[in-house]
Design brief:
The protein is an alpha/beta fold. The protein contains ten helices and nine strands. The two termini are 22 Å apart. The structure holds adenosine-5-diphosphoribose.
Length: 262
């Protein structure tokens, strides 16, 4: 396999020459921040088994009971939430914020709910699976900060429309909120180079975005220690952790922008 340096160089050149770069981010991006992934080594689903695929139906059937179990943080939820509450952005998050600042990266589509891209300073972030710090009305879609809603009376109801409020995190079986899905689709239509960072690319609709880019002749760059279903479609595959490879890519792009790259 090509040396890391050669692959970093190829990735930097592709990103430097591209017109509209997106990053599709998965749980692997936050592993170096201490948050467990879902699949693969150390994954929550590897440890606790895949979650109930009817989680959203359970919420609709008994919103009060669902809230009571959320507050108790049963099962894998406690490990995930505690990991997120302790987490800080890692060098990979800061590298993406710098690429946005440099005008190289246009948007991040993240499957992570940990808020770490915003914490690292990124502004253009589509959280396709929601944000753990927010609540959302399932009727009108209004999002609230957690402290805006009084959860003493369960289930909390939307002050705007009276609909049920749940956590913003998208559950299995729950439709992706239309506003964020449209943002992801519109951005993907413009993309000619997509970074695939720390995602097993198994959950749709996010897993379909790279194929859309590829179908339109765009380039894919994968950053993942392990193979995924998309590996063979990628122009560049970097096997180092994202917190190490992304800062190296940023340095190479800076050299290209300064015209000092050899
Ligand atoms: N750097 C880069 N990639 C990493 C790192 C790292 N340091 N550590 C692990 N990975 C890779 C793993 O090899 C794996 O391919 O990150 C990927 C994480 O995959 P998943 O745990 O499946 O996470 P993700 O792809 O985000 O899952 C999508 O599934 O369960 C749902 O809602 C959940 O948003 C999640 C969705």
């Amino acid at each position: 396999m090509a040396e890391l340096g050669e692959e970093i160089e190829k990735a930097a050149r592709l990103l430097h020459e591209a017109k509209y770069v997106l990053a599709l981010v998965g749980a692997g991006m936050s592993v170096e921040s201490g948050i467990p992934p879902f699949r693969g080594p150390g994954g929550l689903w590897t440890k606790y088994g895949e979650p109930d695929m009817r989680g959203y139906d359970r919420f609709l059937a008994d919103p009060k009971g669902w809230w009571e179990s959320i507050i108790k943080r049963e099962g894998y939820a406690s490990e995930l939430v505690e990991g997120i509450e302790r987490a800080k952005p890692n060098q990979g998050h800061y590298a993406l914020a710098e690429l946005e600042e440099m005008g190289v990266l246009k948007y991040i589509i993240t499957q992570n709910v940990d808020n770490l891209h915003y914490a690292a300073g990124s502004k253009n972030v589509a959280e396709i699976h929601g944000n753990i710090l927010k609540l959302r009305c399932i009727s009108c879609g209004h999002r609230y900060e957690r402290d805006e809603i009084n959860a003493e009376v369960l289930p909390p109801l939307c002050p705007d429309c009276g609909g049920y409020i749940k956590t913003d995190g998208v559950m299995f079986g729950e439709p992706i909120p239309p506003d964020v899905l449209k943002c992801c689709e519109d951005e993907t239509e413009k993309c000619d180079c997509m970074l695939l960072i720390g995602t097993s690319a198994q959950v749709y609709p996010a897993a379909a975005f790279p194929s859309t880019v590829r179908r339109r002749g765009g380039a894919l760059i994968e950053i993942n220690p392990y193979d995924t279903a998309l590996t063979n479609s990628c122009e560049v595959v970097l096997r180092d952790p994202s917190g190490e490879s992304l800062p190296l890519i940023v340095e190479r792009i800076k050299a290209l922008l300064a015209g000092t790259a050899t």
